[in-house]
Amino acid sequence: MRHILGIAIVVALALPLAAQANSAKGLWQTEPDGKGQIGIVSVTPCGAALCGTITKAFDAQSNEVVTPNVGRQILFDLVETKTGTYEGSVLIPKYNRKVNSTIVVSGSSMKLSGCAGAVCGKQSWTRVK
């Protein structure tokens, strides 16, 4: 009986961690842009959905840089459609255009994909924390 209780406690403690591993909430590092700069995006609740804002940017040498995109919201109305999969919109700062997007989170990886008409793109982001 004691063994079963111990297993039940371990499982109960592990379940929230497994669910959190596929959550989009947190800090994410973007892929480098055309200039080699990366952004740090904070994904947090906004109403019933999640939103993401660029909080910092770094150049290719890892020096923090000031850009007009720092402080800019780039993820909008992300709603989880199944565990780890979100639907919403992503702003492409280079073109100042929002596109519908699907986001899939698996552990420390976030894969974003979206299309503007016939032109589609994708990125992979890495969890910072």
Give the uncertain stretches in residue-range form.
Answer: 1-19
CATH topology: Lipocalin
Mean pLDDT: 85
Q: Evaluate the radius of gyration.
A: 17 Å
CATH architecture classification? Beta Barrel
CATH level 1 name: Mainly Beta
Write a structural description.
Helices cover 16% and strands 54% of the residues. The longest helix has 20 residues. The radius of gyration is 17 Å and the shape is globular. The chain has one domain: Lipocalin, CATH 2.40.128. The chain is an alpha+beta fold. It is built from 1 helix and 9 strands.
Topology at a glance:
Blueprint: H1 2-21, E1 26-29, E2 38-46, E3 49-58, E4 64-65, E5 73-82, E6 85-92, E7 97-106, E8 109-116, E9 119-127
Antiparallel strand pairs: 1-2, 1-9, 2-3, 3-4, 3-5, 5-6, 6-7, 7-8, 8-9
For this entry, give a set of tags.
129 residues, alpha+beta, Lipocalin, 16% helix, disordered N terminus
